[in-house]
Amino acid sequence: MQNIKNNNIVLIGFMGCGKGTIARKLSKASGIFAVDTDDLIESLANKTIKEIFEKYGEDYFRQLEKSCALWCEKSLTNTIISTGGGFYKQKNLNKIGTIVYLQTSFQDIIDGFKQSKNYLKKLEKRPLFKDEKEAKKLYDSRVMSYKMVADKIVDIRGKKTKDILKEILR
Ligand code: S3P
Questions:
Q1: For position 145, what pLDDT does the model report?
Q2: For residue 138, which atom of ligand 1 is closest to its CA?
């Protein structure tokens, strides 16, 4: 952990791939605190992601993501950072920390959502996932970019959490 950029780990990947869950488990396993960019944005705006999209639109949300990325670069060290699915586009991403892409298939994401108890709540936070066909298009359009910006790609399909954590920390 000593030689990673800013000593931060930045988890990127598509909506619903489990960035927040992995971040929390990584935090527990390593004793390093974790933050989530969507939570930071919600606190700054004092609004939920759903409200931000509904009241101000996606462009405004992306501006908040930019402010958040600049703040992360300036203010965070020795932190695990889980990000929103579109955060990978931030120009300063590689200055924030070591970027780990949690790679999985669209089908696994859909299956994960459908199996989850709070399915509707999860969809609320994700206005860009309301329409499955549109979400698939978005996934296809982003897959290559996630790989390109990543310092490390961890394929999480069918893996046990403890093995995913080991791979991230290796
Ligand atoms: C988004 C992903 C969401 C949230 C917002 C936009 C995206 O976060 O930031 O709804 O553009 O992919 P999760 O990846 O945690 O779902």
A1: 98
A2: 12
Identify whether the C-beta of residue 11 lies closer than 8 Å to the C-beta of residue 153: no
Q: Which among 81, 128, 145, 146 is the best mutation to test ligand 1's pocket, defined by most ligand atoms within 8 Å of the CB?
A: 128
How many Å apart are CA 157 and CA 170, to the nearest integer? 18
Fold of 5-153: Rossmann fold (3.40.50)
3-class secondary-structure state, position 157 = coil
Q: Which residues of 37-72 are buried (b: 16+ CB within 10 A; e: fewer)?
A: bbebbbeebebebeebbeeeeeeebeebbeebbeeb
If one counts every other C-beta atom within 10 angstroms of the C-beta of residue 91, the result is 9
What separation in angstroms does the CA of 66 have from each of 27, 31, 35? 25, 28, 16
What tens digit of pLDDT does each residue of 48-86 get?
999 999 999 999 999 999 999 999 999 999 999 999 999
CA of 32 to the centre of ligand 1 (A): 23
Q: Where are the domains of the chain?
A: 5-153
* 97/72 Cα distance (integer angstroms): 9
Residues of the chain with pLDDT under 70: 1-5
DSSP letter, residue 64 = H
